[in-house]
Amino acid sequence: MWTKPAWGARLAQWLKVSLLVAAVTACDPAGNITIDVPQVSPSGSGYYVDTLTVRLATVWHDSVATSASDDLLVGRYHDPRLGTITARSYFRVGLAAAYAPGSTEVFDSLVLELKPDAYRYGDTTRQQTVEVHRLRDQFEDAKTYYAFNQLSYDATVLNQGTSARPIYARPSLRTLRLRLADALGRELLSGGQAGRLTTEAEVNYLLAGLVLTPGANDDAALLRTQVSAEGGALHLYTHDPAAPLSAIAQEFTLAAGTKHFYQVTADRTGTLLTPLTTPLQSLDVAQTAQEAYIDGVLGLQTKVEIPYLTDLRTFGSTLTIVQAYLTAEVVPGSSTRYLGPPTNLAVYLSGRGNQQGLALGSSTTGTVVSVPFQSGTSALTGLETGRYSLSVTEYCQAVANRTLDNNGLLLASATPTAPERVVLGGPRRSENRLKLTLYFMNK
């Protein structure tokens, strides 16, 4: 339990802080005063300050790997803050056993079956299309593919008949059957009859893969499907003229083990993030209307810096930071039912060049600190708002002790391969602003 300092000690502390404020303000051309006179804590057992300078910026990391999961994403939507977001998926088809059709078999149809789950991001009340293209480039077996990667593919859309029509990507849509061009189906049948589809490598040589893309004018939602064993397949249907009513089906699997990844890009033209063009570049909230952004698959993270933490040592060498809390509120109106925030954030140490370092908490517990999205009444506006609140006590104490470089923290989506995004208020907003409260004492 803390003890309330005597009047003389409190006066000495007040004088130290006053001198610190004067010194810091003199070297801060923006006049952003670092520390105000500390207040006695509500329990009367220490001091707290809530006017430490906090700097906020958006950092772009472009290193989100998307080839490690079973997921595929496809679609396009326009985000008024982040721009036009487009997702494409690239995948190979596999072969469970040698394909050796009879020499008399006749082609009927070629159908790509996809099994979307309930996940959607964007407006599902608008129509959109899922187009299929033929991949030109071969996958590299040993390569990890990221959200920024792309492979070349034919411009020709393979969809045929009703599968070329727009759909509503509502969560209830769990099976999507897309009939593809007859020419490709006949090519596969001929390859099998010629004995050239006995291994998966031979299949990949004949057909490098397929690509899912949105329609050129789509502005709706991203839908997610999988390449797991139950995640669909490429079905080739034929029949023997001697038994025309008996369909013969050959399945080319999409199962994990074949190569795949999804690409997600953002056209930021006309947004406040237009200047963000280089990986690891940061954009201060002063340039983005006091807004900072987090988006998992786009690699957008929020950097938090508390530049004058080491100056707390002015209070004495025995200073102990007992608690330090950071609260980031969501900008009103920035989240909708179609553009929801990440359920949880992860917190990382930042490198001097904005590189993502160790996760907060990993050195002591072996697990990443997870910061949940919460909804409640804002202390600033009295209105219902979303927010993330996290303890930064250990970080602040380590920086004050000079055992950790003060390069700041990175707030990132805890699900980096998903497109959920959130807009956080900067420290100079009149409302819904980022706030740091720090409690300390001298032993």
Question: Descriptors for this entry?
Answer:
about 35% strand; 2 domains; 7-stranded antiparallel β-sheet; 5 helices; about 450 residues; about 10% helix; mainly beta; disordered N terminus
Notes on the structure:
By secondary structure, the protein is mainly beta. The protein folds into two domains: 7-62 and 279-442, no CATH class; 71-267. 12% of the residues lie in helices and 37% in strands. The chain has five helices and 28 strands. It has helices at 7-26, 182-193, 200-206, 362-365, 393-400; strands at 39-40, 47-49, 55-60, 71-79, 83-91, 106-114, 120-122, 127-128, 130-134, 167-168, 176-180, 210-214, 221-226, 232-240, 243-253, 260-267, 282-284, 291-295, 300-305, 319-329, 344-350, 356-359, 370-372, 374-377, 384-391, 409-413, 421-425, 435-442. The chain is elongated, with a radius of gyration of 28 Å.
Quick overview of this protein structure:
With 443 residues, the chain is mostly beta strands. The protein has five helices and 28 strands. Strand 21 and strand 22 form a beta hairpin.
Unreliable runs: 1-37
**Number of helical segments with 4 or more residues:** 5
How many structural domains in the coordinates? 2
Radius of gyration: 28 Å
| Count of strand segments | 28
Mean pLDDT: 88
For the largest beta-sheet, the strand count, sense and barrel status come to: 7 strands, antiparallel
> In which range does the helix fraction lie?
10-25%
Q: First CA to last CA: what distance?
A: 11 Å
Shape verdict: elongated
Proportion of residues in β-strands: 35-45%
Structural class: mainly beta
What is the assembly state of the chains in this entry? Answer: single chain
